[in-house]
């Protein structure tokens, strides 16, 4: 007898946008990670996920989840392993100074992204990362808004994953050769401990490798005291050069 898999649809609200008209990748990855229920999940993106319209989501064999039509899924998640050497977190003061540098002089390529756009705290995650001097990483001091909390006061898994996305972009941009307009092609993440809305955290990212249009970055979330909460590894791909 074949395995019966659950199938339904989700709608990504327009609040959770990355590039114009495209759902924020970290949020989408988090939705799939919630469905997978595996400790560590890899999400591969294969096409832009729209906002404000129903999109099919279905469980697949082996603890996987896919978003979009079977013949051409837009994203697919599967259980994975994550072997990542995570550097020590910067201090709160270092991360706060990095965030202020971003807001005072935003890097080129900033868009109205739920993750790193210049939005008020109740409309976005504000992952405003710039390099920390002499550390080889970018960072931001972060207090997730209580408006995003679940009934238990915790940040939902999909938004913790959201916080694991954009810092990797800024690591590639500001520490490497990544170009504006790059997209998340794959995101592998794991949550180590809950994240409480309204509490102070550190988000930081570092460059792992680069090859042509491909850029690998690592991201970590930690408490203000430096205790690890979540980590991820991402593959970012530059836009194709104009002909």
UniProtKB/TrEMBL annotation:
InterPro entries: HotDog_dom_sf. Keywords: Plasmid. SUPFAM superfamilies: Thioesterase/thiol ester dehydrase-isomerase. This is Uncharacterized protein. It comes from Streptomyces nigrescens.
